[in-house]
Amino acid sequence: MRIDKFLSDMGLYSRRESAELVKKRRIKIDGVCAAKASEHFDPEKSELTVDGQAVAYKSYFYLMLNKPEGYVSATDDGNLPTVLELVDESYKRAGVFPCGRLDRNTTGLMLLTNDGKLSHRLLSPKHHVDKKYYFSCKFPLSCEDKAALEAGVEIEGGYRTLPCRVELLGENEGFITLTEGKYHQIKLMAKAVHNQIRSLKRVSFGPLELDEALKPGEYRSLSQEEEALLKAHGES
Ligand code: URA
Q1: Which residues are catalytic?
Q2: Is 191 in the pocket of ligand 1 (CB under 6 A)?
Q3: pLDDT tens digits for the chain (236 residues)?
C-alpha cells in the first residue's frame, strides 16, 4: 500500500500532509527514511513510524458523535448539512458513514463507522439493539399513555410497535428505550397517544453511552473497551 494512502486510511494525514512529512524525513519504514509518499510497503509486515512513533494498522474506525440539531444522518444531501461534514476529511476518505438514522432535529449519540458488517448486524431487526432517548413532549403523559407506549401502539401505516420501556422524569419528559428503529418512530408513537414530541436526544445505543463531555457537533474515537463491547454486542 502507498504510504500516503495508508496514513490517510488510518485517519491521520491527508496525502499532501504525508508528502510534507516524507520531505521532512519524518517518516520511516522499518527504520529507513521513506523517499516518496507514493512508496509502497506492506502494513502487515513492516512498521511505519512518524517521528519515531509506530502507526498501528487499523482498517476500521468507530466514532461517537454528539449529533447537533440541523444535521441529517446521511452521507450526502443536496441541500442540508450532513453529519459527515462534522468529521475530519480523513475519516470521510476512509469511508465512514452513520450507523442508523436520527431525524434532523434529534440530537445525541450517533455512531459513525466504515465497518459495514458490524453496522449491518447492529441495525438488523433480528438484533434488537437497545436505543435510549431522552424526550420531552407537549402535553403531560398519563400512566395510561405510558402503559400504552410500553405495550406497543399502532402508528401511521398500521404498524404495531414492539414493547418498549418508558421512564418518566416529570409530567412532560422522560426516557424511552426502543429495540427497533422505524422512521420517526418516537414522534409517531407520541402522536398515537395524542401527544407531540418537543425534543429528542439519543443517550445510548446498545452498550455505548453518550459521552457528555462531547459538546454538540464534537466526536471522538471509541475507546478500546467501547469498541470491544460494541463488537461483542453485534455478535450476540
Ligand atoms: N424516533 C424519532 O421519531 N426520531 C428519531 O430521530 C429517532 C427515533
Answers
A1: 103
A2: no
A3: 999 999 987 878 889 999 999 999 999 999 999 999 999 999 989 999 999 999 988 879 999 999 999 999 988 878 899 999 999 887 888 899 999 999 999 999 999 999 999 999 999 988 889 999 999 999 999 999 999 999 999 999 899 999 999 999 999 999 999 999 999 999 999 999 999 999 999 999 999 999 999 999 999 999 989 999 999 998 87
CA dist list (Å): 24 to 4, 34, 62, 144, 148: 14, 10, 31, 69, 66
Give the closest residue (by CA) to ligand 1 atom 2: 184
CA of 90 to the centre of ligand 1 (A): 29
- Does the predicted model carry a pTM greater than 0.90? no
Residue type at position 161: T
SS3 call for 17: helix
The pick from 130, 161, 185 for probing ligand 1's pocket by mutation, whose C-beta has the most ligand atoms within 8 angstroms, reads: 185
